[in-house]
Amino acid sequence: MTIKNPALTVVDMLYDFIDGSLACLNAGNAVNEAVKFIDSMTPAQEEAGEEDILDTFPILFVCDHHPSDHSSFKENGGIWPPHCVQGTHGGAVHEKLQPYMKEELTFLKGCDRAVEQYSGFEARNSAGQSLGDILELLDTTDVYVCGIATEFCVRSTCEDLKKAGFKVHLISKALGYVDEEGHRKALKEMAENGIIIE
Ligand code: VGL
Ligand code: ZN
Question: I need a labelling partner for 78 at 20 to 30 A (CA). Which of 1, 31, 38, 153 fits?
Fold first, then answer.
């Protein structure tokens, strides 16, 4: 089947996961690889300006966006150090990717204190739309995914995209992870589940 209207989903490429409280392995390198991938998908667009790039190749950003008292934080009974608190530098998308962001293609998750949300599929944009809503509107068949962390939010997002019927391509060089072995195991299991590892 031919690929129709491909899109990229960037999961949690946020400072706390790159060099902050939950800094992940390979995260800085993953950001550079994500930019390289975007450039490779838009070769003829380089001089056309960023708005035009997004018209031909939509880039959807998923962002962990926690209140300061979120239940996933250790001090509140969770397993993680405080991270990606709303309004902080740690919760901001890496500056190399910021030029590609658009409000309607930015999806926030983990906003409710009581609920942990690893999947980007549960995130919403400012109009209340989900990734699935937008990808359907775009009439997308194939979704590329990069981001942090492989074992948690990336995996959960890929699996939900797959369940929703999209063909999912995971850009393996553009991933950050908590643990090298966990990363490899997650890639293997995702491949077994029909996710295409690029
Ligand atoms: C994530 C831990 C806590 C992730 C988010 O993006 O993988 N991990 N919150
Ligand atoms: Zn989180």
Answer: 31
